[in-house]
Design brief:
The complex is a heterodimer of chains A (225) and B (258). Chain A is mostly helical and 225 residues long. Chain A has a single domain, classed as Orthogonal Bundle (MetI-like fold). Chain A has nine helices and no strands. The radius of gyration of chain B is 22 Å and the shape is globular. Chain B has ten helices and 14 strands. Chain B has two domains: 31-125 and 222-254, D-Maltodextrin-Binding Protein, domain 2 (3-Layer(aba) Sandwich); 129-218, D-Maltodextrin-Binding Protein, domain 2 (3-Layer(aba) Sandwich). In chain B, the strands form three sheets. In chain B, strands 8, 9, 10, 11, 12 and 13 form a six-stranded mixed sheet that branches. Chain B is an alpha/beta fold and 258 residues long. The chains are: A mainly alpha (225), B alpha/beta (258). Chains A and B meet through helix 4, helix 8 and helix 9 of A and helix 1, helix 4 and strand 10 of B.
Chain lengths: 225, 258
Protein backbone atom coordinates (compact mmCIF):
# COMPACT_ATOMS: atom_id res chain seq x y z
CA UNK A 1 0.00 0.00 0.00
CA UNK A 2 2.80 2.44 0.79
CA UNK A 3 3.82 1.70 -2.76
CA UNK A 4 1.19 4.21 -3.88
CA UNK A 5 3.59 6.95 -2.77
CA UNK A 6 6.79 5.10 -3.73
CA UNK A 7 9.84 7.24 -4.49
CA UNK A 8 10.09 6.16 -8.12
CA UNK A 9 6.59 7.49 -8.72
CA UNK A 10 7.71 10.91 -7.53
CA UNK A 11 10.60 10.74 -9.97
CA UNK A 12 8.17 10.06 -12.85
CA UNK A 13 6.08 12.97 -11.65
CA UNK A 14 9.15 15.23 -11.49
CA UNK A 15 10.11 14.27 -15.05
CA UNK A 16 6.68 15.34 -16.24
CA UNK A 17 6.53 18.46 -14.07
CA UNK A 18 5.99 20.70 -17.10
CA UNK A 19 2.62 18.99 -17.67
CA UNK A 20 1.43 20.16 -14.27
CA UNK A 21 2.96 23.62 -14.58
CA UNK A 22 1.18 24.10 -17.91
CA UNK A 23 -2.07 22.85 -16.40
CA UNK A 24 -1.74 25.28 -13.52
CA UNK A 25 -1.00 28.09 -15.95
CA UNK A 26 -4.12 27.30 -18.00
CA UNK A 27 -6.17 27.23 -14.81
CA UNK A 28 -4.81 30.66 -13.84
CA UNK A 29 -5.51 32.06 -17.32
CA UNK A 30 -9.09 30.74 -17.20
CA UNK A 31 -9.57 32.13 -13.69
CA UNK A 32 -8.16 35.54 -14.67
CA UNK A 33 -10.30 35.77 -17.81
CA UNK A 34 -13.32 34.47 -15.93
CA UNK A 35 -12.79 37.04 -13.17
CA UNK A 36 -12.74 39.95 -15.62
CA UNK A 37 -15.93 38.79 -17.30
CA UNK A 38 -17.53 38.06 -13.93
CA UNK A 39 -16.69 41.52 -12.57
CA UNK A 40 -18.09 43.18 -15.67
CA UNK A 41 -21.32 41.17 -15.54
CA UNK A 42 -21.50 41.30 -11.75
CA UNK A 43 -21.31 45.08 -11.55
CA UNK A 44 -23.63 45.62 -14.50
CA UNK A 45 -26.33 43.31 -13.20
CA UNK A 46 -25.73 44.29 -9.57
CA UNK A 47 -26.40 47.93 -10.44
CA UNK A 48 -29.40 46.90 -12.53
CA UNK A 49 -30.80 44.95 -9.59
CA UNK A 50 -30.76 48.06 -7.41
CA UNK A 51 -32.12 50.42 -10.03
CA UNK A 52 -35.69 51.65 -9.96
CA UNK A 53 -36.25 50.56 -13.54
CA UNK A 54 -38.50 47.50 -13.35
CA UNK A 55 -37.30 45.95 -16.61
CA UNK A 56 -33.63 46.26 -15.67
CA UNK A 57 -34.44 44.84 -12.27
CA UNK A 58 -36.24 41.77 -13.57
CA UNK A 59 -33.57 41.25 -16.19
CA UNK A 60 -30.91 41.12 -13.49
CA UNK A 61 -33.06 38.77 -11.46
CA UNK A 62 -33.54 36.34 -14.33
CA UNK A 63 -29.81 36.27 -15.00
CA UNK A 64 -29.04 35.61 -11.34
CA UNK A 65 -31.61 32.87 -10.90
CA UNK A 66 -30.60 31.02 -14.07
CA UNK A 67 -26.93 30.91 -13.33
CA UNK A 68 -27.04 30.21 -9.62
CA UNK A 69 -29.65 27.46 -9.83
CA UNK A 70 -28.13 25.31 -12.56
CA UNK A 71 -24.99 23.23 -11.95
CA UNK A 72 -21.86 24.75 -13.41
CA UNK A 73 -21.11 21.41 -15.07
CA UNK A 74 -24.29 21.67 -17.13
CA UNK A 75 -23.63 25.29 -18.00
CA UNK A 76 -20.21 24.32 -19.33
CA UNK A 77 -21.67 21.47 -21.38
CA UNK A 78 -24.45 23.68 -22.68
CA UNK A 79 -22.05 26.37 -23.89
CA UNK A 80 -19.67 23.81 -25.35
CA UNK A 81 -22.39 21.90 -27.18
CA UNK A 82 -23.98 25.09 -28.49
CA UNK A 83 -20.73 26.01 -30.18
CA UNK A 84 -19.74 22.64 -31.58
CA UNK A 85 -23.21 21.84 -32.88
CA UNK A 86 -23.44 25.20 -34.60
CA UNK A 87 -20.19 24.34 -36.29
CA UNK A 88 -18.05 26.93 -34.51
CA UNK A 89 -14.58 25.74 -33.51
CA UNK A 90 -13.99 26.91 -29.96
CA UNK A 91 -11.18 26.27 -27.52
CA UNK A 92 -12.19 24.79 -24.17
CA UNK A 93 -10.29 27.65 -22.53
CA UNK A 94 -12.73 30.19 -23.99
CA UNK A 95 -15.67 28.00 -22.95
CA UNK A 96 -14.19 27.93 -19.44
CA UNK A 97 -13.81 31.70 -19.30
CA UNK A 98 -17.38 32.17 -20.53
CA UNK A 99 -18.99 29.59 -18.26
CA UNK A 100 -17.11 30.62 -15.13
CA UNK A 101 -17.52 34.31 -15.95
CA UNK A 102 -21.29 33.94 -16.39
CA UNK A 103 -21.77 31.80 -13.30
CA UNK A 104 -19.51 33.73 -10.91
CA UNK A 105 -20.80 36.97 -12.46
CA UNK A 106 -24.27 36.05 -11.20
CA UNK A 107 -22.94 35.50 -7.69
CA UNK A 108 -20.97 38.75 -7.83
CA UNK A 109 -24.09 40.66 -8.92
CA UNK A 110 -25.69 39.51 -5.66
CA UNK A 111 -22.64 40.72 -3.72
CA UNK A 112 -22.72 44.07 -5.50
CA UNK A 113 -26.44 44.45 -4.83
CA UNK A 114 -25.85 43.66 -1.18
CA UNK A 115 -22.99 46.16 -1.06
CA UNK A 116 -25.09 48.94 -2.52
CA UNK A 117 -28.03 48.22 -0.25
CA UNK A 118 -25.71 48.24 2.77
CA UNK A 119 -25.25 52.00 2.34
CA UNK A 120 -27.77 53.68 4.67
CA UNK A 121 -30.76 55.28 2.99
CA UNK A 122 -30.06 58.58 4.70
CA UNK A 123 -26.99 59.08 2.55
CA UNK A 124 -29.03 58.89 -0.63
CA UNK A 125 -31.46 61.41 0.77
CA UNK A 126 -28.53 63.65 1.72
CA UNK A 127 -26.99 63.50 -1.77
CA UNK A 128 -30.36 64.22 -3.30
CA UNK A 129 -30.65 67.25 -1.04
CA UNK A 130 -27.22 68.37 -2.27
CA UNK A 131 -28.45 68.14 -5.84
CA UNK A 132 -26.21 65.24 -6.89
CA UNK A 133 -27.32 63.11 -9.83
CA UNK A 134 -27.72 59.34 -9.42
CA UNK A 135 -24.45 58.76 -11.26
CA UNK A 136 -22.60 61.25 -9.05
CA UNK A 137 -24.09 59.69 -5.96
CA UNK A 138 -22.83 56.30 -7.05
CA UNK A 139 -19.36 57.50 -7.95
CA UNK A 140 -18.62 59.87 -5.08
CA UNK A 141 -20.57 58.44 -2.18
CA UNK A 142 -21.69 54.85 -2.68
CA UNK A 143 -18.90 53.11 -4.59
CA UNK A 144 -15.99 54.10 -2.31
CA UNK A 145 -17.81 52.73 0.72
CA UNK A 146 -19.19 49.72 -1.09
CA UNK A 147 -15.82 48.55 -2.42
CA UNK A 148 -14.57 48.11 1.12
CA UNK A 149 -17.60 46.04 2.04
CA UNK A 150 -17.55 43.77 -0.98
CA UNK A 151 -13.81 43.18 -1.29
CA UNK A 152 -13.69 40.13 1.03
CA UNK A 153 -16.61 38.26 -0.59
CA UNK A 154 -15.21 39.13 -4.02
CA UNK A 155 -11.85 37.61 -3.13
CA UNK A 156 -13.63 34.49 -1.91
CA UNK A 157 -15.41 34.26 -5.26
CA UNK A 158 -12.03 34.46 -6.99
CA UNK A 159 -10.88 31.42 -5.04
CA UNK A 160 -14.14 29.65 -5.94
CA UNK A 161 -13.43 30.49 -9.56
CA UNK A 162 -9.97 28.96 -9.43
CA UNK A 163 -11.28 25.78 -7.79
CA UNK A 164 -14.20 25.47 -10.20
CA UNK A 165 -11.91 25.28 -13.24
CA UNK A 166 -12.09 21.58 -12.32
CA UNK A 167 -15.37 21.19 -14.19
CA UNK A 168 -13.58 21.86 -17.48
CA UNK A 169 -11.99 18.45 -17.12
CA UNK A 170 -15.07 17.06 -18.86
CA UNK A 171 -14.44 18.96 -22.07
CA UNK A 172 -10.67 18.41 -21.97
CA UNK A 173 -10.02 21.97 -20.85
CA UNK A 174 -6.28 21.41 -20.28
CA UNK A 175 -6.82 22.82 -16.80
CA UNK A 176 -4.88 21.54 -13.81
CA UNK A 177 -7.47 18.90 -12.85
CA UNK A 178 -7.69 17.63 -16.42
CA UNK A 179 -3.95 17.27 -16.92
CA UNK A 180 -3.71 15.56 -13.54
CA UNK A 181 -6.37 12.96 -14.31
CA UNK A 182 -4.91 12.47 -17.74
CA UNK A 183 -1.48 11.93 -16.30
CA UNK A 184 -2.94 9.51 -13.78
CA UNK A 185 -4.76 7.50 -16.46
CA UNK A 186 -1.60 7.13 -18.54
CA UNK A 187 1.95 5.97 -18.03
CA UNK A 188 2.54 4.29 -14.70
CA UNK A 189 -0.91 5.11 -13.23
CA UNK A 190 0.77 6.86 -10.29
CA UNK A 191 -2.30 8.55 -8.87
CA UNK A 192 -0.95 9.02 -5.34
CA UNK A 193 1.67 11.72 -5.89
CA UNK A 194 -0.28 13.26 -8.78
CA UNK A 195 -3.47 13.98 -6.85
CA UNK A 196 -1.49 15.13 -3.82
CA UNK A 197 0.53 17.59 -5.89
CA UNK A 198 -2.60 18.78 -7.71
CA UNK A 199 -4.26 19.50 -4.37
CA UNK A 200 -1.20 21.30 -3.04
CA UNK A 201 -0.99 23.48 -6.17
CA UNK A 202 -4.65 24.50 -5.84
CA UNK A 203 -4.08 25.20 -2.16
CA UNK A 204 -0.99 27.26 -2.90
CA UNK A 205 -2.98 29.47 -5.27
CA UNK A 206 -6.19 29.79 -3.25
CA UNK A 207 -4.91 30.02 0.32
CA UNK A 208 -3.24 33.43 -0.16
CA UNK A 209 -6.45 34.72 -1.75
CA UNK A 210 -8.80 33.51 0.97
CA UNK A 211 -6.50 34.51 3.80
CA UNK A 212 -6.15 37.97 2.31
CA UNK A 213 -9.92 38.14 2.13
CA UNK A 214 -10.14 37.24 5.79
CA UNK A 215 -7.56 39.85 6.76
CA UNK A 216 -9.46 42.48 4.79
CA UNK A 217 -12.69 41.51 6.44
CA UNK A 218 -11.20 41.81 9.89
CA UNK A 219 -9.69 45.17 9.02
CA UNK A 220 -13.02 46.37 7.72
CA UNK A 221 -14.93 45.22 10.77
CA UNK A 222 -12.29 46.89 12.94
CA UNK A 223 -12.78 50.29 11.33
CA UNK A 224 -16.53 50.06 11.64
CA UNK A 225 -16.52 49.30 15.31
CA UNK B 1 4.10 37.51 7.61
CA UNK B 2 6.31 34.98 9.34
CA UNK B 3 3.36 33.69 11.31
CA UNK B 4 1.26 33.24 8.19
CA UNK B 5 4.05 31.34 6.53
CA UNK B 6 4.38 29.03 9.52
CA UNK B 7 0.67 28.44 9.53
CA UNK B 8 0.73 27.48 5.85
CA UNK B 9 3.53 25.01 6.41
CA UNK B 10 1.68 23.44 9.34
CA UNK B 11 -1.54 23.11 7.36
CA UNK B 12 0.24 21.48 4.46
CA UNK B 13 2.05 19.07 6.75
CA UNK B 14 -1.17 18.14 8.48
CA UNK B 15 -2.92 17.55 5.15
CA UNK B 16 -0.10 15.37 3.91
CA UNK B 17 -0.08 13.36 7.12
CA UNK B 18 -3.81 12.73 6.90
CA UNK B 19 -3.45 11.54 3.31
CA UNK B 20 -0.62 9.19 4.18
CA UNK B 21 -2.32 7.76 7.24
CA UNK B 22 -5.55 7.20 5.33
CA UNK B 23 -3.56 5.48 2.60
CA UNK B 24 -1.94 3.29 5.23
CA UNK B 25 -5.25 2.01 6.64
CA UNK B 26 -5.81 -1.66 6.13
CA UNK B 27 -2.48 -1.97 4.41
CA UNK B 28 -1.70 -5.34 5.93
CA UNK B 29 -3.29 -8.66 5.07
CA UNK B 30 -5.34 -7.40 2.13
CA UNK B 31 -3.03 -8.73 -0.57
CA UNK B 32 -4.98 -11.23 -2.63
CA UNK B 33 -3.94 -14.85 -2.38
CA UNK B 34 -5.69 -18.05 -3.40
CA UNK B 35 -5.97 -19.01 0.26
CA UNK B 36 -7.58 -15.72 1.27
CA UNK B 37 -10.04 -15.75 -1.60
CA UNK B 38 -11.08 -19.32 -0.77
CA UNK B 39 -11.48 -18.38 2.89
CA UNK B 40 -13.62 -15.39 1.96
CA UNK B 41 -15.62 -17.60 -0.40
CA UNK B 42 -15.82 -14.85 -2.97
CA UNK B 43 -13.69 -13.57 -5.84
CA UNK B 44 -14.08 -9.83 -6.27
CA UNK B 45 -13.55 -8.64 -9.83
CA UNK B 46 -13.49 -5.17 -11.33
CA UNK B 47 -15.20 -5.10 -14.75
CA UNK B 48 -16.55 -2.65 -17.31
CA UNK B 49 -20.31 -2.19 -17.46
CA UNK B 50 -20.73 -0.48 -20.83
CA UNK B 51 -18.34 -2.30 -23.16
CA UNK B 52 -20.40 -4.68 -25.25
CA UNK B 53 -18.82 -8.11 -25.65
CA UNK B 54 -16.30 -7.51 -22.84
CA UNK B 55 -18.06 -6.26 -19.77
CA UNK B 56 -21.63 -5.15 -20.16
CA UNK B 57 -24.32 -4.73 -17.55
CA UNK B 58 -27.38 -5.76 -19.49
CA UNK B 59 -30.17 -3.36 -18.55
CA UNK B 60 -32.81 -5.94 -19.53
CA UNK B 61 -31.59 -8.68 -17.20
CA UNK B 62 -29.52 -6.74 -14.68
CA UNK B 63 -26.72 -9.26 -15.25
CA UNK B 64 -23.16 -8.67 -16.38
CA UNK B 65 -22.16 -10.34 -19.63
CA UNK B 66 -19.14 -10.48 -21.94
CA UNK B 67 -15.74 -12.11 -22.41
CA UNK B 68 -14.24 -10.63 -19.27
CA UNK B 69 -17.29 -11.61 -17.24
CA UNK B 70 -17.01 -15.21 -18.48
CA UNK B 71 -13.30 -15.26 -17.63
CA UNK B 72 -14.02 -14.03 -14.12
CA UNK B 73 -16.82 -16.56 -13.65
CA UNK B 74 -14.54 -19.39 -14.81
CA UNK B 75 -11.80 -18.21 -12.49
CA UNK B 76 -14.22 -18.21 -9.54
CA UNK B 77 -15.61 -21.60 -10.53
CA UNK B 78 -12.11 -23.15 -10.54
CA UNK B 79 -11.43 -21.63 -7.13
CA UNK B 80 -14.73 -22.98 -5.87
CA UNK B 81 -15.98 -19.57 -4.76
CA UNK B 82 -18.71 -17.13 -5.73
CA UNK B 83 -17.94 -14.18 -7.98
CA UNK B 84 -18.74 -10.58 -7.17
CA UNK B 85 -18.53 -7.84 -9.84
CA UNK B 86 -17.72 -4.20 -9.29
CA UNK B 87 -18.06 -1.71 -12.13
CA UNK B 88 -14.84 0.20 -12.65
CA UNK B 89 -13.49 2.82 -15.04
CA UNK B 90 -10.03 4.02 -16.03
CA UNK B 91 -9.70 6.20 -12.97
CA UNK B 92 -10.89 3.72 -10.36
CA UNK B 93 -9.65 0.26 -11.39
CA UNK B 94 -6.04 0.71 -10.21
CA UNK B 95 -7.05 2.38 -6.96
CA UNK B 96 -9.52 -0.40 -6.08
CA UNK B 97 -6.82 -3.02 -6.67
CA UNK B 98 -4.37 -1.10 -4.49
CA UNK B 99 -6.85 -0.77 -1.65
CA UNK B 100 -7.70 -4.47 -1.79
CA UNK B 101 -11.34 -3.70 -2.55
CA UNK B 102 -11.13 -6.07 -5.53
CA UNK B 103 -8.86 -9.07 -6.20
CA UNK B 104 -8.43 -8.63 -9.93
CA UNK B 105 -9.38 -6.36 -12.81
CA UNK B 106 -10.63 -7.64 -16.16
CA UNK B 107 -11.79 -4.41 -17.73
CA UNK B 108 -10.21 -3.81 -21.18
CA UNK B 109 -7.05 -2.93 -19.25
CA UNK B 110 -4.25 -2.42 -21.81
CA UNK B 111 -0.87 -3.85 -20.86
CA UNK B 112 2.05 -1.42 -21.12
CA UNK B 113 5.58 -1.59 -19.74
CA UNK B 114 5.00 1.50 -17.63
CA UNK B 115 1.81 0.06 -16.14
CA UNK B 116 3.69 -3.11 -15.26
CA UNK B 117 5.64 -1.01 -12.76
CA UNK B 118 2.40 -0.44 -10.84
CA UNK B 119 0.39 -3.65 -11.38
CA UNK B 120 0.90 -7.27 -12.33
CA UNK B 121 -0.60 -8.26 -15.66
CA UNK B 122 -1.42 -11.70 -17.01
CA UNK B 123 -0.62 -12.76 -20.55
CA UNK B 124 -2.94 -10.91 -22.91
CA UNK B 125 -6.28 -12.66 -23.50
CA UNK B 126 -7.43 -10.31 -26.27
CA UNK B 127 -5.87 -7.82 -28.66
CA UNK B 128 -8.03 -4.87 -29.54
CA UNK B 129 -7.42 -2.42 -32.37
CA UNK B 130 -8.47 1.08 -33.25
CA UNK B 131 -10.78 1.45 -36.25
CA UNK B 132 -13.35 3.81 -37.69
CA UNK B 133 -17.14 3.68 -37.85
CA UNK B 134 -18.66 4.99 -41.10
CA UNK B 135 -22.08 5.29 -42.73
CA UNK B 136 -22.83 2.50 -45.19
CA UNK B 137 -23.51 5.03 -47.95
CA UNK B 138 -20.17 6.82 -47.43
CA UNK B 139 -18.18 4.49 -49.66
CA UNK B 140 -15.25 4.65 -47.24
CA UNK B 141 -13.45 1.36 -46.64
CA UNK B 142 -9.86 2.18 -45.62
CA UNK B 143 -8.09 4.97 -43.74
CA UNK B 144 -6.72 6.33 -47.04
CA UNK B 145 -10.30 6.97 -48.21
CA UNK B 146 -10.54 9.63 -45.48
CA UNK B 147 -8.35 12.05 -47.46
CA UNK B 148 -9.88 15.50 -46.86
CA UNK B 149 -12.71 14.07 -44.75
CA UNK B 150 -13.56 14.49 -41.09
CA UNK B 151 -13.26 11.99 -38.24
CA UNK B 152 -14.95 12.49 -34.87
CA UNK B 153 -13.02 11.54 -31.74
CA UNK B 154 -13.64 11.89 -28.03
CA UNK B 155 -11.82 14.84 -26.47
CA UNK B 156 -8.52 13.88 -24.92
CA UNK B 157 -8.45 10.36 -26.35
CA UNK B 158 -5.37 8.89 -28.07
CA UNK B 159 -7.43 7.71 -31.06
CA UNK B 160 -6.58 10.85 -33.05
CA UNK B 161 -2.87 10.19 -32.62
CA UNK B 162 -3.38 6.55 -33.56
CA UNK B 163 -5.19 7.44 -36.76
CA UNK B 164 -2.63 10.06 -37.78
CA UNK B 165 0.34 7.77 -37.27
CA UNK B 166 -1.23 5.07 -39.43
CA UNK B 167 -2.03 6.99 -42.57
CA UNK B 168 -0.58 9.68 -44.82
CA UNK B 169 -4.05 10.92 -45.73
CA UNK B 170 -4.83 14.45 -44.61
CA UNK B 171 -7.74 14.06 -42.22
CA UNK B 172 -9.65 16.69 -40.25
CA UNK B 173 -10.62 15.90 -36.68
CA UNK B 174 -13.54 17.13 -34.65
CA UNK B 175 -13.67 16.48 -30.91
CA UNK B 176 -16.75 15.75 -28.83
CA UNK B 177 -17.08 15.10 -25.10
CA UNK B 178 -18.94 11.77 -25.38
CA UNK B 179 -19.00 8.69 -27.61
CA UNK B 180 -22.70 9.30 -28.22
CA UNK B 181 -21.89 12.73 -29.70
CA UNK B 182 -19.36 11.16 -32.09
CA UNK B 183 -21.91 8.61 -33.24
CA UNK B 184 -24.51 11.36 -33.72
CA UNK B 185 -21.98 13.36 -35.76
CA UNK B 186 -21.51 10.38 -38.08
CA UNK B 187 -25.21 9.62 -38.34
CA UNK B 188 -26.07 13.27 -39.09
CA UNK B 189 -23.24 13.67 -41.56
CA UNK B 190 -21.34 16.29 -39.55
CA UNK B 191 -18.41 13.86 -39.53
CA UNK B 192 -17.53 11.08 -41.96
CA UNK B 193 -16.15 8.68 -39.37
CA UNK B 194 -15.82 8.02 -35.66
CA UNK B 195 -12.53 6.53 -34.48
CA UNK B 196 -11.92 4.63 -31.25
CA UNK B 197 -11.16 1.08 -30.04
CA UNK B 198 -13.17 -1.58 -31.86
CA UNK B 199 -14.48 -2.87 -28.52
CA UNK B 200 -16.10 0.52 -27.94
CA UNK B 201 -17.14 1.05 -31.56
CA UNK B 202 -19.08 -2.20 -31.77
CA UNK B 203 -21.79 -0.78 -29.46
CA UNK B 204 -22.51 1.93 -32.00
CA UNK B 205 -22.88 -0.28 -35.05
CA UNK B 206 -26.44 -0.31 -36.44
CA UNK B 207 -28.22 -0.87 -39.76
CA UNK B 208 -26.92 2.36 -41.24
CA UNK B 209 -23.24 2.13 -40.35
CA UNK B 210 -20.35 -0.30 -40.05
CA UNK B 211 -16.70 -0.48 -39.02
CA UNK B 212 -14.13 -0.19 -41.85
CA UNK B 213 -11.74 -3.06 -42.51
CA UNK B 214 -8.57 -1.16 -41.47
CA UNK B 215 -7.33 -2.15 -38.03
CA UNK B 216 -4.41 -0.41 -36.38
CA UNK B 217 -2.75 0.49 -33.05
CA UNK B 218 -3.02 -2.92 -31.35
CA UNK B 219 -3.68 -2.96 -27.60
CA UNK B 220 -3.24 -6.08 -25.51
CA UNK B 221 -5.79 -6.54 -22.75
CA UNK B 222 -4.62 -8.41 -19.66
CA UNK B 223 -5.98 -9.34 -16.24
CA UNK B 224 -4.45 -7.01 -13.67
CA UNK B 225 -3.72 -7.98 -10.10
CA UNK B 226 -2.05 -6.16 -7.25
CA UNK B 227 1.69 -5.73 -7.75
CA UNK B 228 3.63 -8.60 -6.18
CA UNK B 229 0.61 -10.42 -4.74
CA UNK B 230 0.47 -14.20 -4.65
CA UNK B 231 -2.74 -14.42 -6.67
CA UNK B 232 -0.94 -13.16 -9.82
CA UNK B 233 0.69 -16.51 -10.43
CA UNK B 234 -2.61 -18.34 -10.20
CA UNK B 235 -4.28 -15.97 -12.66
CA UNK B 236 -1.37 -16.27 -15.09
CA UNK B 237 -1.50 -20.08 -14.98
CA UNK B 238 -5.23 -20.07 -15.68
CA UNK B 239 -5.08 -17.54 -18.53
CA UNK B 240 -2.18 -19.24 -20.31
CA UNK B 241 -3.90 -22.59 -19.81
CA UNK B 242 -7.17 -21.31 -21.33
CA UNK B 243 -5.26 -19.69 -24.19
CA UNK B 244 -3.55 -22.94 -25.16
CA UNK B 245 -6.58 -25.24 -24.77
CA UNK B 246 -8.83 -22.97 -26.85
CA UNK B 247 -11.16 -22.01 -24.00
CA UNK B 248 -10.56 -18.28 -24.55
CA UNK B 249 -10.94 -18.58 -28.32
CA UNK B 250 -14.29 -20.22 -27.65
CA UNK B 251 -15.38 -17.45 -25.29
CA UNK B 252 -14.35 -14.79 -27.82
CA UNK B 253 -16.53 -16.55 -30.38
CA UNK B 254 -19.39 -16.89 -27.94
CA UNK B 255 -19.35 -13.17 -27.19
CA UNK B 256 -19.17 -12.25 -30.83
CA UNK B 257 -16.07 -10.06 -30.68
CA UNK B 258 -13.85 -11.25 -33.48
Amino acid sequence: MTDVFALWRWQYLWNDRMVFIKGLWTTIIIAAGGLMLALLLGFTFGLMATSRNKIAKSFARVYLEIFRNIPLTLQVLFIYYSFIYSGVKISPTIVGIMALGLCIGALISEIVRGGIEAIPKGQYEATAAQGLTTLQTMRIVVLPQMIKIIMPPLATQLAVLVLNTCVLQMIAGNDLMYVTSNWVANGTLSYGPAYLVCGLLFFAVCYPITSMARRQERLHLGTRR
Amino acid sequence: MKKTFLRIICTLLAATLVMFSLAGCGAESKDASVEKIKKAGVLKVGVKEATLGFGYLNPATGEYEGLEIDLAKKMAEDLGVKVEFTSVNASTRGQLLDSGEIDMVAATFTITDERRLSYDFSTSYYTDYVSVLVRNDSGIETLEDFEGKTIAVVTGSVSKKNVESNTSAKINFVEYPEYSDCKLAVASGTADGFAVDVSVLSIWVDDDCHIISSRFAPQDYGVATKKGCEFTKYVEEKITGWLSDGTIAGLIDKNGIK
